[in-house]
Specification:
The chain is 45% helix and 4% strand. With 137 residues, it is mainly alpha-helical. A hairpin with a 6-residue loop joins strand 1 and strand 2. The relative contact order is 0.16.
Length: 137
């Protein structure tokens, strides 16, 4: 058991309790940046499409002919920033953990089968979206 997957408490003697894994701030931002990228490039794609998008220039979900120069720039920068998310197993684990965080922390809603996602309509999402645009611009 590693430090990222469980939390151990030593209160009241030697009892240990494992809690469900949560996301670090970095992981939270990676997941949301990945979902933001998908929303900008392939809005109808499943969250599971991100590794293929980051890894391949001919992924089936790519509609490159209709992309603007800005969208191509987003993809190229995201490939650098989200390099860990190029591994499908890593991305899937992050998405599963993201689905378990409390609602007030998440900027996106995921469907129960993880096949769809949507932006939440809360105020702080606009701030995060602006930050993601600046990161990829």
């Amino acid at each position: 058991m590693n430090a990222q997957s469980a939390s151990v408490s030593f209160a009241r003697g030697a009892q240990t309790t494992a809690r469900p894994a949560s996301l670090t701030a970095r992981q939270l931002s990676e997941v949301e940046l990945g979902l933001f990228l998908l929303s900008q490039l392939t809005p109808t794609a499943s969250p599971a499409a991100l590794p293929a998008l980051l890894n391949s220039s001919d992924a089936p979900c790519l509609e490159r002919a209709a992309w603007t120069a800005k969208q191509h720039k987003y993809l190229n920068r995201a490939r650098l920033v989200l390099s860990r998310c190029r591994q499908p197993a890593c991305w899937d684990k992050l998405i599963e953990r993201y689905a378990t965080i409390t609602d007030h922390l998440a900027a996106y809603d995921l469907s129960s089968d993880r096949s769809r996602f949507s932006e939440k309509s809360v105020g702080f999402f606009r701030n995060r979206a602006a930050t993601f645009k600046q990161m990829l611009a």
